[in-house]
Each structure stands twice: as structure tokens, then as C-alpha cells.
Write a structure and sequence with these properties.
152 residues; Ap4A_phos1/2-like; alpha+beta; 16% strand
Length: 152
């Protein structure tokens, strides 16, 4: 039976294949969490993130000046082991390299866009993924926006 594709070309079998490929290549860096049930909700706590030093603490002399980093979502910089599929001509689905749950997917634009308001195309791309979600925790979508989100 052929893979069922949603609007814009998303298919769940591509997620399963990408997970297998990424695990085989050790491309995922899981963030361990402890699930806590609160009624019908599950909160995931990550104790390891408490131990992460702040930039000022790492050097002991204030903020660290770093060389400019490459945009990991630029088409030429994508880790092929994390690519799930393209969604139409404007978006790509990736596995999150640092998953909190599995699968932890990212829906990113193919071209750089400021992280301000979502476009109608962004909503359609996200809904095409959520409409076929098969993860055990159900689907959840969130959007990082504003001048301090994403790559800086």
C-alpha cells in the first residue's frame, strides 16, 4: 500500500524512516526528561538543564564573544540524517537534533524569514503534520517568535 500523504506532501512513514536513519547515525542527542502526570496533562521535567552553565559563568569574566554560527536551517547546512521530507515548496520537516520526546519534529521554512507572525503557509504546513500525527503523546505545536528567538 503506498504511503498516505497529507496536504503539502507530508507522510508519517517518512518520519519512521528518518528516525531509523538518525538513530543509526547517532545524529540525535536525546534530552532525558521525567514525565509527571497532572490529570490529563503530562509535564516533562529535565533535571539536566539545571546544570547547564550560563555563558557568563563559563568564562568567569562576563559574556563570551563567539564567532558567528551558521544557520542550521539553511538548506545547505541541513544534516541529511535529520531531514524527514519537504512540504511543498516552502517548508521542510526535520527531526529535532535535541528531542525532548520522540518523535520531536521541526517544521522550518526553506528560506530565512524573520520570526514574527506566522503566515497562512506556515499554518498549512504545521496542520499537515499534526493532521497525521501518530506519536504517543498526541501532537503539540509551538512557535518561537520575536527578536530573541532562534539563531542569534
Amino acid at each position: 500500500m503506498p504511503a498516505s500523504k497529507g496536504a503539502a506532501g507530508f507522510c508519517w512513514q517518512a518520519v519512521e524512516r528518518a528516525l531509523e536513519r538518525a538513530r543509526g547515525a547517532n545524529a540525535l542527542r536525546d534530552i532525558p526528561t521525567v514525565p509527571r502526570r497532572h490529570g490529563k496533562f503530562v509535564l516533562r521535567l529535565s533535571e539536566n538543564l539545571r546544570q547547564k552553565p550560563k555563558l557568563e559563568e563559563a568564562s568567569g569574566v562576563g559574556p563570551i564573544s563567539r564567532p558567528k554560527r551558521l544557520d542550521p536551517f539553511e538548506r545547505n547546512n541541513l544534516d541529511p540524517d535529520l531531514v524527514v521530507c519537504d512540504l511543498g515548496s516552502g517548508h521542510t520537516v526535520l527531526l529535532n537534533k535535541f528531542p525532548v520526546v520522540s518523535p520531536h519534529l521541526l517544521v522550518v521554512t526553506r528560506d530565512f524569514e524573520p520570526q514574527t507572525d506566522l503566515s497562512a503557509a506556515d499554518y498549512r504546513a504545521c496542520l499537515s503534520v499534526l493532521g497525521q500525527w501518530r506519536g504517543e503523546d498526541g501532537g503539540l505545536a509551538f512557535y518561537n517568535s520575536g527578536p530573541h528567538s532562534g539563531m542569534r
